[in-house]
# Entry
Amino acid sequence: MSKTGQNNFQNLKFSYESSKDSLLKNTFFKELNENQKIAVEHEEGPILVLSGAGTGKTRVLTARLAKILFSGKAKPWNILAVTFTNKAAREMRSRLETLIGLNANSLWLGTFHSIASKILRKNANLVNLNSNFTIINPDDQKRLLKELIIYEKLDEKKVTPQFISNLINSWKDKGLTYNDIMNNSEEHILDGKAVKIFKKYQERLISMNYVDFGDLLIHNLSIFKNNSEILDDFKKNIKYFLIDEYQDTNTAQYLWLKLLVKPENNICCVGDDDQSIYGWRGAEVGNILRFEKDFPGAKIVRLEENYRSNKYILNTANVLITNNKSRLGKSLKTSKKTGEKINVFSFLDTNEETRKVSNEIERLIKDGTKLDQIAVLVRAGYQTRAFEDRFVQIGLPYRVVGTKFYERFEIRDALSYFRMVIQKSDDLALERIINSPKRGIGAQTINLIKNYSRSEEISFFKAIEELVLTDELRPSVKLTLIEFLNLLQLWTEDLKSLTHTELAKKILEESGYVNNLKHENSLESEGRLENLKELINAMSSFDNMLGFLEHISLVNDNDQENKDGEISLMTLHASKGLEFDAVFLPCWEEGSFPSQKSIDEKGLEGLEEERRLAYVGITRAKLYLTISYASSRQIHGIWQNLVPSRFVEELPSEEINHVFDYNIMQNKFNHFSGYDFNQDFNFKLNKTNKKFKKNYNKNQIIKNSSIISNSNFKIGDRVFHIKFGMGRIKFLDANKAIVLFDKAGEKNVITSFLERK
# Structure
């Protein structure tokens, strides 16, 4: 500790002692509610602060830090405060310095990784590193793993560096070393070659004085376990621990904390088990659930006073989350008496949903809601596409948190392929895809082609055509380029015989692009595959490929900054920690949300994490919230009937305005229980052993259903449906029909949606 730091601390202590009640007089502390004060003033032993959405956890953490310093019970270097992002650490440091009026640099305040890095640099020699080690960047990591994959004679197309990287990261998140893996079932992944690559990877990192992010904690664990004097020194010096977002800690972080914290230490963990949504990246909600077991005698304080949302939003969130069994339990409340009930809408399809959402947004703007206080939150990234298209069409300014749909890497690659089929002189498109996926066409070959095209003043494509007739290129490269040219020619010919969506699928398959992503077998590659499927869906709304590509140009031209703000489009995961006056939560259908993949992989645990994600989405809204679902969407290019998410059933009827579509409700009950919707309009939703009854009559059904009892159709009639196309009626019952469609197959439909042909 520097003399300046010591003097600053002495001044702080003197300031406190000279005015015993200064803490109470400080406005910041006076504004704390009762439970916040309990959390701040608790001095001895472990404490878990269950901080619900919008209940002021950052204020509590900052006030607790200041209280410890004001009290003189600890010096700044006796406190370790951990946040989950560098941004959160900067914000807390700034608030603290404003509050105490002194520099807070001597605090151990930062992320798990930043604090672990400091510890490792001081003790690097104990794990065979030098103190000036480098944290490897993702590109170098992938190159290193690729070398090791080749060394182990694995198929590079099937076993990608990304797959191995994800696997190694998952092991490190669990706190596992090579020896640990050799003693469990994961030893046999890739016939045992995965663990061999892991061992060689670690050896290479050490030899080059490198670490990856997972190593920062793994090396810390090794140092503490094998050097008791170093661990004891930390235990002696660190007296107070403050851990933010405790529900998001992984196993390695948990083990690191357990080693450092003594039973008599004052550990304060702040978190919300109901907002644990990052299991897919290693977070263990069990860490917060077993806090009392890990720290006997721990005090539990619940922060339930929400300063963000209206009562309807909070009550809805409370009821929904009670369906989770693995939780400590709390109930958000607010003193606000005003606000609108939640709107829950059902729609015929995606187009109707985007139209209604955009209309509602325009109404909110007209009523005074600012653009940057409106958000559309989706379960999966590809679901932003339909809203982006709609907003561009009607001129609503928006921003995508992350990357806009049509700017995503894989989408740009696909569009470049499509552009080349339309126009062979598109040099930029050809240069982008010539080695994507990798075909062994290196920079040297590309430069040769470019130089030739410039010197001859011909297109990149024409240059390749001429060069493959010469001996300027290596035989293997020449053969690859000839095969590539042949593919482009075949696809161009297919323009005459295939629909543009069929051709798009064919291009992505035959180019090897889809297979390359499948073999990568990572969360990232799965997301990219979903995006490509959504791209095909988007194309189906256009007559041909050229029209679609022109549409993309218009979308990409909509990037100018809007001085009045922009609507936010993002995933539910990205929205955590944010808040908006108005929130829209679309696409609440079974299979999409909750994610069927999550349920298949993790069962009840996966379902409960999905429900926590729904809880997070609901509690982002302050004043206005709309949830919606559709009866049909295009999935993989085919129109499919859908049923509402089970989460819709779990919403409390007294807090919502639920406007039903007759067709959707019929599909829903047929799907879940074989219920005959026509026999009784009084229905019971008891999916969670909770009775939820409500009577509906036909006047309450959404107008666009246009229910007609007398259809005037007869069996055998040729009919047209706006989504399913041409078909023939096989069965009639009042206002419903079973139609065998030419392309979509047999469907149950409402006769008012049919036209006789």
